[in-house]
Amino acid sequence: MAKKSSIEKNNRRRELADRLAAKREALKAVIMDQEAPIEERFRAQLRLSGMPRNSSKTRIRNRCEVTGRPRAFYRKLKMSRIALRELGNQGQIPGIVKSSW
């Protein structure tokens, strides 16, 4: 089980990124627009760099919904390999059967 503070920090990052996503995209569009004046592009770059770092999507870490484990994460199921195995053995996940041969 991951530390509660790490899980909460990641949740705050996810919330902040969702809230400021439209603003970041608008600023990035101005920066990438080659037709815009250089002063306007520079102001947009300064505003983007002034935004909170945690509002960037790249700062979000994929974590298991069950345990909070940050590694060995399956995106499709939103859980780690360990939680997947435990829940699969208990019969909690449809379609997952313990193999034997």
From TrEMBL:
Keywords: Ribonucleoprotein, Ribosomal protein, RNA-binding, rRNA-binding. GO terms for biological process: translation. GO terms for molecular function: rRNA binding; structural constituent of ribosome. Pfam families: Ribosomal_S14. The keyword Mitochondrion does not apply. One of its GO terms (cellular component) is small ribosomal subunit. The keyword Repeat does not apply. Belongs to the universal ribosomal protein uS14 family. Binds 16S rRNA, required for the assembly of 30S particles and may also be responsible for determining the conformation of the 16S rRNA at the A site. Part of the 30S ribosomal subunit. Contacts proteins S3 and S10. This is Small ribosomal subunit protein uS14. It comes from Aureimonas endophytica.
